[in-house]
Predict the structure.
Amino acid sequence: MNPIQSLQGIIPPMITPLNPDFSLDVASTEKLIEHLIEGGVHGIFIIGTTGESASISPDVKSDLIRLTCKKVNGRVPVLVGITESSFVQSLDLAAIAHESGASALVAATPFYINIDQDEVVNYYQKLADAVKLPLFLYDMPSHTKVKIEVESAVKLSAHPNIFGLKDSTGDKANFAALCEAFKGQPDFRLFIGPEEILAEALEMGGHGGVSGGANMFPKLYVSLFEAFQKNETEKVQSLQETILLLSANIYQNGTYKSSYLKGLKACLSFEELCNGILALPLYAYSESDQEALREKFQFIKDRVEQAVLQTI
C-alpha cells in the first residue's frame, strides 16, 4: 500500500510568507514549518488557495517547494499544489515536487476556461498519467468556477495514481455524497477544506481537514482530530465551537472578500510567523484595522489555549 492511502488528520494549507518585493521570505517559511510540525500536524500542503497559488510567481513556487521539502526532511508528508490553467506548467511544478522529495500533488480544475465534466475527467486522467507522484483532486468551484461532480470523482478514483479529494465546496451535502459514494473504497482519502464543518465532516467519514486556522493554532485542530479518534464527543464539540469563534473573529473583518487571507496573515504577523504581506492584487489591512484585529486575536488566542488545555 502506498503510504498516501493511509493519510489522515490535519494538513494545514500553509500560507506563503513573502518579502516586500514578493519574493519568498525564507526565514519566516522555515519558522512557520517548525511551528506546524511542533503543533503535531499530519502533513503540510503548500501552494494552495491559502498559499495564494494564483498570485505568487513561478520562482516563488519553485523556491517554496524546494525549501519546504528540505526543511520538513521527511518528518511529515508534503503535498504540493500544481493548479494551473496550463497543463504544461502543472507538469513543471510536479517535476520540481518530485525532484525535491514531496509526497503527493494536489490539483484543482483549470480556471478561466469553460469545461464540462467529460473534460474534467479527461484532464485529470491525463495529469495522473503524466506525473510521478500520487495525485489528489481539489474541488474549489468558488474560485475555479468548475465543479468536480461526485460522479466524476468516482470515475477518476479508478485511476491507479489518483488517491483522494479535498472538498472545498463548503457544501455539507456534497461531502456527505462523497462519503457515501466512497464507502466501499476506504483507501480513497477524503479531506474537508472549510474548518467550520470539520467535526461534521469527520463524523460523515472524512479522513481529515485541510484547515487554514492550523497555520496559527495547529494544536487546536490536531486536538479535535485526536479527540474524534478517541470518540470523545464533548471535547470534539468544544473544540469545534472554538474554531467557529476563531472563524467569526479572524476571517470576517470588514467587507473585503479577501478578509480570510487578510486576517490570517495579519494574525500570523502578530506572532512573527510572517511579515503579513499578501501578493497583489490583495493587500494587507490598514494599521487601524490591524490594531482592531489584534485585540480579537488575543481574545481568540486565550480561548484556544484554554480549549487545548482542557483536552489534555
